[in-house]
Write a structure and sequence with these properties.
By secondary structure, this protein is of the alpha/beta class. Helices cover about 25% and strands about 25% of the residues. Strands 8-9-14-15-16-17-18-19 form an eight-stranded parallel beta barrel, surrounded by six helices. It has a seven-stranded mixed beta sheet with strand order 1-7-5-6-4-2-3, covered by helices on one side. α2 (about 60-70) packs parallel to α3 (about 120-130) and α8 (about 305-320) packs across α11 (about 355-370). About 50% of the residues are buried. The structure holds acetamide (ACM) and zinc ion. Zinc ion binds near residues 280, 299 and 337.
């Protein structure tokens, strides 16, 4: 019998036992790594004639095992575990002494027993069993040999979550369900559904049906401005009540609690465009936005707002059965509250010194509504910046590690979602597409981060959470989702589940490369580096370009710091930036000092690594004589390459749409190739 332990605590306590790597040949590397793995001789033949026996209550999990392994196993409902051959036993044994969600998986030549501390434990035993099977071997008739082994396993943290922002980019219900399946495969148990934000309201409500019906769409005549890759067309969507229930049901089956978020008092432009009366008294903010009012904060001094919020919270609590309701509290711009007479009067009355205190006051008021309905409030870390939160909320610390430490010190329960490690919209290397304000977040960085501050010993950090914010999604397309999430989500899952002392990036990487990526392949996950996906570099300026002399002018003034000349200096590190967005009728012109002969010209707008501040819908024309123009691209968006048929005199872009949804346009140097 070979014995080894993943639990390095045990290793340090028993320095004489040698600990071979998880990669040792017999057991496929499991992710997240189990607490304890004890190898034995022999194999169990899973497949032909295997019977699954379990109590009536566990039959749906037996069917799940059947479905997920693709094996034609028979399911029988029986009590007791009397000896038989070729049997998989599933049972719950609260007396087994396992922590919540824990399980043992014991494989002998005759039987395979999964004993859960609870139903969730059985589910997680099944997930481990799935990983003991060969990844590509899911033919119903085949037999898989599973090594004899005894695994004892339980989670490090009770909260192992994932945030999906469906406001910036709408994610259809079927795709949400696919992600839930992948979460469960990695033993994750909380789905944070970011359903409302400035760019859309996706939650159907009986009390305010217009919020989803109208607020679910942007651009193309919607009161919500277009932005983030859907310019000049109506974009959006919202869930039906049946779809919300389908997500909640599917999640519940997989031991995943759905945490819905109603983000307020900031991040509320969508609701404010449908119900402008919720805003502070004061001037509209349209100067930079092609006519769209950019205000997005609920007025704290307008009493009727709290009646509306309470109706929404009430319905959310009716629809979502989970213990926690997220009420936002992040990134509230202070300006409107500072100038609003009603908010100022309120601050005076309540003795609130600043807008941070007003934000905390606001979240306390909403927290009371949540608590009155028997639920627990979750808030972003800024909600605690202006005083004490009174309703025992869970703080979701996202800004940085200090925000985790601050919340822990203040004695709150904390979900660690630090953007510098757990925001999966961040780029994965310097040259790839993605956001970078949280830095480059590569796999080793996500994996290597210890989520519990060193000084903390009393379990205040209740878990970890990965965030997928979707501002840049439409730019990149569907491939972007799996590419950003996997395998970083595997690393997060292991941090959430496996014992902290056992984490070793080299070992994790080996388990990924030898086994787990093949499992993801078999599940159809197009992870970063997957066959056919590879590594996607951001736009790189090719070698050997022609540095022609040209002048750029336009109808929109540029900033002094980024004048038009910066997009005409052949230095691709600099760019031009306008003082406002471009609207229908605005134009930009590139005029060559002398006609240039070339093979192709690429016109680029927006940042080169992060497509924002683009020109948006425009017509691109070329002139070969300086007098007449011909259209080369009637639907220019942010970049375009064309092949001139003669020496080019000038290029002209005429904007046709309603702006790019931002407050500026960035124009890059032309890339001219021989
Ligand atoms: C956040 O990223 N504003 C939570
Ligand atoms: Zn106000």
């Amino acid at each position: 019998m070979i014995r080894y332990y993943k639990l390095l605590i045990a290793y340090f306590l028993c320095p004489l036992i040698s600990v071979p790597a998880m990669a040792a040949s017999a057991v496929p590397g499991i992710i997240p790594a189990p607490v304890e793995v004890e190898m034995r001789e022999g194999v169990f033949a899973f497949g032909a004639g295997t019977v699954v026996r379990c109590s009536y209550e566990l039959r749906p999990l037996a069917s799940y095992l059947y479905r997920e392994t693709g094996r034609r196993v028979r399911v029988e409902s029986v009590a007791g575990i009397h000896g038989a051959q070729n049997v998989v036993w599933l049972f719950v044994d609260p007396a087994a002494g396992l922590p919540a969600e824990g399980y043992t998986l014991e494989v002998t030549r005759d039987t395979l027993r999964i004993t859960g501390a609870d139903r969730a434990g059985v589910l997680y035993g099944i997930q481990t069993l799935r990983q003991l099977l060969p990844p590509h071997d899911n033919l119903p008739v085949s037999v898989a040999e599973i090594p004899c082994v005894r695994i004892t396993d339980y989670p490090r943290f009770p909260y192992r979550g994932f945030t999906l922002d469906v406001a910036r980019t709408f994610t259809p219900c079927e795709e949400v369900i696919r992600l839930l399946d992948l979460m469960a495969f990695h033993k994750m148990n909380r789905f944070h559904w970011h359903l409302t934000d400035d760019e859309g309201w996706r939650l159907p409500l009986e009390c305010y049906p217009e919020l989803a019906r109208e607020g679910g769409f942007r651009g193309g005549g919607s009161p919500i401005r277009n932005i983030y890759g859907a310019w000049g067309e109506r974009y959006g969507g919202y869930y039906t009540p049946e779809q919300v229930w389908a997500v909640i049901d599917h999640a519940a089956f997989l031991n995943i609690e759905v945490v819905p978020e109603f983000d307020l008092p900031g991040h509320s432009r969508a609701v404010a465009r449908i119900h402008p009366e919720i805003l502070c008294r004061g001037p509209v903010d349209t100067a930079s936005s092609a006519g769209y009012d950019l205000r997005k904060v609920w007025c704290a001094g307008r009493e009727e707002n709290f009646a509306m919020i309470e109706r929404i919270i009430d319905e959310i609590c009716e629809v979502f059965p989970g213990a926690v309701i997220h009420t936002g509290g992040d990134e509230v711009p202070p300006e409107q509250w500072e100038t609003c007479p009603d908010c100022r009067a309120l601050m005076e009355r309540e003795g609130l010194e600043n807008t941070a205190a007003l934000n905390t006051w606001f979240e306390n008021r909403v927290g009371r509504m949540v608590a009155a309905r028997g639920r627990r409030q979750a808030v972003w870390n800024e909600a605690a910046d202006g005083g004490r939160l009174e309703h025992d909320p869970v703080i979701w610390a996202w800004e940085n590690h200090e925000s985790v430490e601050r919340a822990v010190r203040a004695g709150y329960d904390v979900v660690n979602m630090t953007s510098q490690y757990y925001y999966f919209d961040m780029k994965q290397s310097a040259s790839e597409v993605g956001l970078a304000w949280g830095g480059v977040v590569d796999l080793a960085k996500t994996y290597g981060y210890e989520p519990v501050p060193a000084a903390e010993g009393d379990g205040r950090v209740i878990g970890v959470n990965g965030g997928f914010w979707t501002e840049t999604f439409l730019w990149n397309g569907e491939w972007w989702r799996d590419y950003q999430l996997f395998p970083r989500m595997c690393a997060l899952a292991e941090t959430g589940w496996s014992q902290g002392s056992a984490r070793d990036f080299g070992d994790f990487r080996e388990r990924l490369d030898r086994w787990h990526l093949a499992r993801l392949d078999a599940l159809g996950v197009a992870y970063r580096g997957a066959p056919g996906v590879g590594i996607r570099e951001a736009y790189a300026v090719p070698e050997g370009r022609i540095r022609a002399a040209y002048e750029l002018t336009g109808s929109v003034p540029c900033t002094a710091r980024n004048p038009y000349s910066h997009a005409a200096d052949n230095d691709t590190r600099t760019f031009a930036r306008t003082e406002r967005t471009a609207r229908a009728g605005d134009w930009f012109e590139f005029r060559f000092r002398s006609p240039v002969e070339c093979g192709s010209i690429t016109v680029r707008s927006g940042y080169s690594a992060l497509p924002r501040f683009v020109i948006g819908p425009a017509v691109l024309e070329v002139s070969y004589d300086g007098r007449t123009y011909e259209v080369v691209d009637p639907r220019f968006g942010y970049t375009g390459t064309f092949r001139p048929r003669a020496a080019v005199h000038s290029l002209r872009l005429t904007v046709t749409g309603e702006g790019n949804g931002e407050d500026a346009v960035i124009i890059q140097d032309l890339v001219i190739m021989p």
